[in-house]
Amino acid sequence: METLHTTDVLIIGGGLAGERCAIEAAVAGLDVTLLSLVPPRRSHSCAAQGGMQAALGNCVRAEGDNPTVHFLDTVRGSDWGADQEVARIFADEAPVAVRELAHWGVPWTRVRPGKNVYFEKGERVEIEESEENAGLIMHRNFGGTAKWRACYAGAGTGHAVLYAVDGEVVRLGIDVQDRVEAVSLIHEAGRCWGAVTRCLRTGALGTHLAKATVIATGGHGRIYGRYTTNATINEGTGAAIALRAGVPLGNMEAVQFHPTGLVPSGILVTEGCRGDGGHLRNASLDRFMVEAEPEKQELASRDVVSRHMMQQIQDGHGVESPMGPHLWLDLRHLGEKHLRSKLLEVTEICRDFVGIDPARDMIPVRPTQHYSMGGIRVNKDGEAYGMHGLFAVGEASCWDMHGFNRLGGNSLAETIVAGRVVGRRVATYAQHASLDLELGLAHRFVSEDRKRIEAWRDRSTSAASIYQIRDDIAEVLVSQVGVFRSGEGLEEAVDALSRQVERVNDASLRACGSGAQPELTFALRLEGMAKLALITAEGALARTESRGAHCRIDHPERNDESWLNRTLAHWPEGAPAPRLSYEPVGLLDLPPGDRGYGATQRIEMNQSTEAYNQDVVRLQADAGHLPTAEDVGTRMRWGAWSDSTHRTTPEVIE
Amino acid sequence: MSTSPPKIRTRKLQFEIFRHDPSDPSSEPRMQTFSLDEAPYQTLYLALTQIREEQDPSLQFDFACRSAVCGSCGMMVNGRPVLGCRTLTADLPSTIRLHPLPGFQLVGDLSVDTGKWFRGMAERVEAWVHERAPFDPEAQEARMGDEVAQAIYDGERCIECGCCVAGCGVANLNANFIGPAGMNRIARFMMDPRDERSDDEWFDVVAGEDGVFGCVGLMACHDVCPKDLPLLEVYAYLRRRALTTALPGKSRPSLLQIEAQENRATP
């Protein structure tokens, strides 16, 4: 007999977004249960390195920064794919979120008054930081931003933030159940009531019933197999169970490739390296980004830098190695002292995984899958489309402040800001809800999961191995749904991935034992991973334009006439393929324009932003958008960008 | 410069791995041998994953970030506690003996429950800032010298992998011992000016047999810490803080001063 557990708020996922959300609900006096695949401090938030964006404007290179400039950078970075009201909510609340973390003990690097030495565009510069700002939170430069804005603690920012936030979770006595996986959502008639869970210690099934359920399981980069910076646990478990419950996923074709994944392991090397003045070089040791992007150089947005890098490799300028071609990240000029303090974690990774010292050696890197802009589609309150009582937050969600390209440092900031914003909404929701469901409903969902498990155990054939299917999916994605995409390649990918979705039903386990069974744990995730992969390829095939990280070589222009929209993917029960539909990106404040970096080919919208905005609310409601606590648009600060001192092109630092 | 291809040694590796499922009454602890061809840049993460996928699907172990930051994969490799993900097989002899970390509850095979242990430790030392005033969202952040921030960050870098606890002679005998990671956590909050706890409040936690005076000075913790945390200095700092609390009149050291002295002592 399975265990039954009831709570007010069930949070699925113990990374920063889930924990910050849990705190908000616990402070409101609610019972909170937090499930996590691993102890929360081991979740992938800990691997965020370089920083967290918040417009405090504390150092010389951040002068004049404010939330409006942050909003503009974020919308431009998204290539206008973002929901601008969400980007606005985010930019406005980020400074408070960072200061709250300081209050909770994060040892942010602070402004040192007097002469500081920095590296900018290949030059060593000396800048006098003021006494007035001494001891305030310091910033470092990051890609795609007009100002230095990333707040940081060495190159271990995610770790430091996660430990402070988890400290609050412990202080509040929140019930954390680690090594527990949510394997299905319990729902009926568009209302979610919690989840069926599987204990990863014993293999036992259980039910967790809740008034409000929050998915915060992070990204799904592991569908790209080993070609990702993501942790082994980032297998899209949350997105998969939402999809199975009928909730749409948004913009799954929007996949970020980080320019500097370490070769061969794929481990992240932070953008802070380039923010602090690091250079990219090709096999001839040329700094190819200087010619490619004269204004921003190595600090264009990630989608742009990754494309230039892949082009270098395709043009034969990569460094040949037994592990495939790569480029170099050169930090030698930053000096040993800097590398052993502000980039200490990078120095450690280089030593441990390739046996080099970045003070003396260049680092082998290449673009590597890093971030899922797409995810569970939610409204600005974080509530899932078409499913009352279900929320999603952080990378698992498509909130959607990142559109088709996320700026570096905006994800760590999103986890905390969205955790606060959505957490408040979750708390209000749960306070006004009661747990009135038939227990039979829970039993029905548990028995379906038991049948799924038994089906795996019964298939003792010599069919395909689950790990082989996983590897095959990854090869298709990395070769056809990578940095550059084409219609022809994507058609092949859709065919191949459709076959993999079918193959999952024929795959078998090597062992049929009882207990935790790590093999079964993975097998239960495989169907979801295959579906996420196919949705990614289908969305990319259908989107015949190039926007942000989605780059179609056969459709190189950004097409605001036809594609200023968000892809939604449903998976109808029993269907062999997803059903795609589209909704407006959201209300437009900043009209679509030039980003100030990257390619400039565009097809302009054939209507005014006012005309576009007129239909947004209706069309999104048709797509499943649930009513929000405040009306859509109430948090916009219309036109604030026009009287900001900010120019249309991101300001270039002299 | 590492432009030359890696040296590829073609060795046959023998893995001798501890196996036991404590939830299965019929399970007896035993060692099981697997063999594997060595590959370039092969870490224990890659090797164990390959063994599980190709040879024994029931093998239990824990990896998450596989980049030495999450602390999931502490294990005993040829008798020494290390992070499996960053351990290259090329640095090991061809026979590799793997055991779970001692000092923690066994989940199964190489997997141990460090999560429960560290949550218990965090509750015991109240590992959060005990602040003076509630957070004011309207206010600018309180100022802090960057040197202080850096010193706190150095202490904050512990990833709670448990290697120090597994390597600690005292922690292996006395389950109540706060342990090196716990001591480090205490020192981190003690030096944080945002934390209002007084030395008298700390004294009950720090002093005594389960605290800093329980340490017998073997300092294996310092040697095995994968993050090279200066645990020797942490213990020295806590001892002196405890003594100055017990013997008023002595001046209080800061960890920064102690570190500066250590740096001078070792050229």
Number of helical segments of chain B?
A: 10
Q: Assess the beta-strand content of chain B as a share of residues.
A: 5-15%
The count of DSSP E runs of length 2 or more, i.e. the number of strands of chain B, is 7
List the helices and strands of chain B in order: EEHEEEEEHHHHHHHHH
| Main sheet characteristics of chain A | 7 strands, mixed
Q: What is the end-to-end distance of chain B?
A: 28 Å
Give the CA-based shape of chain B.
elongated
In the predicted model, the low-confidence regions of chain B spanning at least 5 consecutive residues are 1-5
Class derived from helix and strand content of chain B: alpha+beta
Largest interface, Cβ cutoff 8 Å: A-B, 79 and 68 residues
Structure summary, number of beta strands of chain A: 23
Q: What fraction, in percent, of the residue positions of chain A are helical?
A: 25-40%
| Overall 3D shape of chain A | globular
Segments of chain A where pLDDT lies below 50 for 5+ residues?
645-654
Order of strands across the main sheet of chain B: 2-1-5-3-4
Multimeric state: heterodimer
Task: Describe what is shown at a glance.
The complex is a heterodimer of chains A (654) and B (267). Chain A is an alpha/beta fold.
Task: Itemize the secondary structure elements and their pairings.
The complex is a heterodimer of chains A (654) and B (267).
Chain A: E1 3-12, H1 16-27, E2 32-36, E3 52-53, H2 67-77, H3 84-103, E4 114-120, E5 123-129, E6 139-140, E7 150-151, H4 157-171, E8 175-178, E9 180-188, E10 191-199, E11 205-215, H5 237-244, E12 249-250, E13 255-262, H6 272-275, E14 279-281, H7 288-292, H8 302-314, E15 327-330, H9 336-341, H10 344-354, E16 363-372, E17 375-377, E18 390-392, E19 397-398, H11 410-431, H12 439-458, H13 466-480, H14 487-504, H15 518-542, E20 558-559, E21 565-570, E22 579-584, E23 602-603, H16 609-614, H17 616-622
Parallel strand pairs in A: 1-2, 1-11, 2-8, 11-18, 17-19, 20-23
Antiparallel strand pairs in A: 3-7, 4-5, 6-7, 9-10, 10-11, 12-17, 12-21, 13-16, 14-15, 15-16, 21-22
Helix pairs in contact in A: 1-4, 1-11, 2-3, 3-11, 5-15, 13-14, 13-15, 14-15
Chain B: E1 12-19, E2 30-37, H1 44-54, E3 74-77, E4 80-83, E5 95-99, E6 106-108, E7 111-112, H2 114-124, H3 146-156, H4 163-167, H5 169-173, H6 179-190, H7 199-206, H8 220-224, H9 231-246, H10 255-265
Parallel strand pairs in B: 1-5
Antiparallel strand pairs in B: 1-2, 3-4, 3-5, 6-7
Helix pairs in contact in B: 3-6, 6-9, 7-9, 9-10
